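Please predict the structure of the following assembly.
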Amino acid sequence: MFKNLVIVESPAKAKTIEKFLGKDYKVMSSYGHIRDLNKKKFSIDIDHGFAPIYEIPDDKKQLVAELKKAVKSAEIVWLASDEDREGEAIAWHLCEVLGLDPATTRRIVFHEITKNAIEEAISHPRAIDLNRVDAQQARRVLDRIVGFELSPVLWKKIKPALSAGRVQSVAVRLIVERENEIKAFRSESYYRVNATFLDKGGAPVKAELSRRISDKDSAVKLLDDCAHASFSVKSVNVRPVTKSPAPPFTTSTLQQEASRKLGFSVTQTMMVAQKLYEAGYITYMRTDSLNLSSLALGAIASEITGKLGERYLKTRQYHTHSKGAQEAHEAIRPTDISSSSISASIQEQRLYSLIWKRTIASQMSDAEIEKTTVEIQPSTRDEHFTATGEVINFDGFLKVYIEGNDDDADETDGDLLPAMTAGDTLEASAVTATERFTQQPPRYTEASLVKKMEELGIGRPSTYAPTISTIQARDYVEKGEKEGSERKYNVISLDGGNITDKVKKEVVGSEKGKLIPTDIGVVVNDFLTRYFPSILDYDFTARMEEKFDDIAEGNLAWNKEIAMFYELFHPDVDSALNMRLEHKVGERVLGVDPHGKQVSVKIGRYGPLVQIGDGDGDEKPQFASLLKGQSVSTITLEEALKLFEFPRNLGTYEGSEVTVAIGKYGPYIKHEGKFVSIPKDMAPAAITLEEAEELIKAKRSAESKRVVKTFDEDPEVQILNGPYGPYISCRKSNYKIPRTVTSPEALTIDECRKIMEEQNAAPKKSARKYTKKK
DNA sequence: CAGTGAGCGAGCTTCCGCTTGACTT
């Protein structure tokens, strides 16, 4: 028996605040939402005011039972879910399910987990805000309608099991449109001219010409002019600049910075952050707030003054400018700022250190920098050279943390310049014109896509990472694997009066980890933007958010707004479903084959394919899948016809046939009933018998390493090497080697038998379904 | 692991936002 029951969203939070509240309070967690629409059914009663039909999912039933029991034995129930739209709805669902009265149940909120904030919240309970709950219901119902009406259109018109939604479809659109910009981009070359001058004392001054030179002839001419010029200082300009620190982390900026500085994927960042949160090292990691609690501000201030001195402190409160931010939590910060490092896994330490530095820096003074610009005039030309130098007079926050940058800028200013005054003469020791190329727009990375999504207000901190996984799982987008390629460029130098011309090489255009649309992504996007332009509009979410705000204010009725939307949206769905097109969506006719039959490419049930014959006559068409790296939009007739040359017989090796074929998992070589995959960088159409033999040999040697140990006593028991490390195999059954075993190769047959027995005896835990791709 | 894609037919797939498990032979 206890007096008070407090329900929060997160179990880690429950643990923390239970400590603050004392023994009269029991704190439990709802683990997020406890009710939702059915996972598979539409669950919206369109004819009755779009009433949502909620249910408690199976994996929440036990939790709900426990909450019900706790409610019975409590005198007062406090609903302390987050102070945002979803939190309000969670509180309301709790009332509905637990049989509490929304009008009288005490609803409390706190933005920070401190004793003061919690006591303050307890002393100011309010009722549930039903208008805000309605805004959440509108959001939920809208997303269900869009997702569950649009996806089936794609199943019918393009390919089964595809999906569309308010957030994911716009994310895909961003990536497809960026790719289109890149395709339309034509790189141009120009010359950048750098020079090193020497002052009277022989000190070097690095400078760059104030304008770009468009072509090689002009560059040579300029260098020639410089060879016959004298140089003098035209002007010296010194001005102070200040730099301010970046605000503390939100989910989005943490994902970006962990990607730039630690090379983490957004999922990885969130997994590591979750660990840190559960261990009590950091505050909540799914947040859009820049706010730091007053307690935290005080602790950070004393940390800075104590370690670095008063001069480095500048207390700042940041305010978010993000669209749709709901600020239910604090910014992401260490819970104990006096710990600059923690003992945990390497990844956890690195992420923690990043958060610690960013948090400290956000409360530090501006850096004070003196920027010097010197203009250097050649006697033979109108344009001048510019040298810039920086002197840091006071480092401020730079002492601790510098924010990363997405574009790989190759500017280098910040050199120290020798003292110069106008009229000084300088001597040119070297002038170099380097060929450069205008840059195509950069492809999105996971992190830069999150940044863009946040700017547009689509998605929430809890969904950035899952959305990026979804669009990859649906094969709309994939991460680039191509390393960069070599490019040649000219370097023309003037050195000691002679002009020399060299060709250098650089590696550019690496696509590793960049998001690139697939054929399916492109076709789905073209289809959706054409037939559902309003949903795919970048401002759709922002406009809906305004409606939700009005609903939350009590100025609009949620189901009327949904009805208005539905009246416009649903007819578009119907007409898209029923339209008849001459060609399948995304189909492209390449021409005719030698027999005069039509050759076309399109998206089939299993992905992109080529088809010979249009199926009009009696003859059955022929099909072949496109290879990885080939695209519906760029494949030529010739390349398409080559795909029908498989399986290809290469000849014989060790007396048996060697054939090349295209399978479900890509191109492969078949020999004596064994399959050998062909690596991505080899063209299956051009592979030779010799190359195939090499691959077969390589596969055999890998195979021989697979067996770690066999036993004379029992040939059916083997220790094998698998992707997760060594394991025991016996008659098609596999057994995990316990973690306590340090050297599996030393296991005896008896030990193996014991391990197998134990695992056979152990009740097989209800095998969780693993949604494995392919 | 290693084609499958029409001409039968049924049944399945799918959204966004809150939360954490239990799981890797």
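Chain A is about 35% helix and 25% strand. Confidence is low (pLDDT under 50) at residues 763-774 of chain A.
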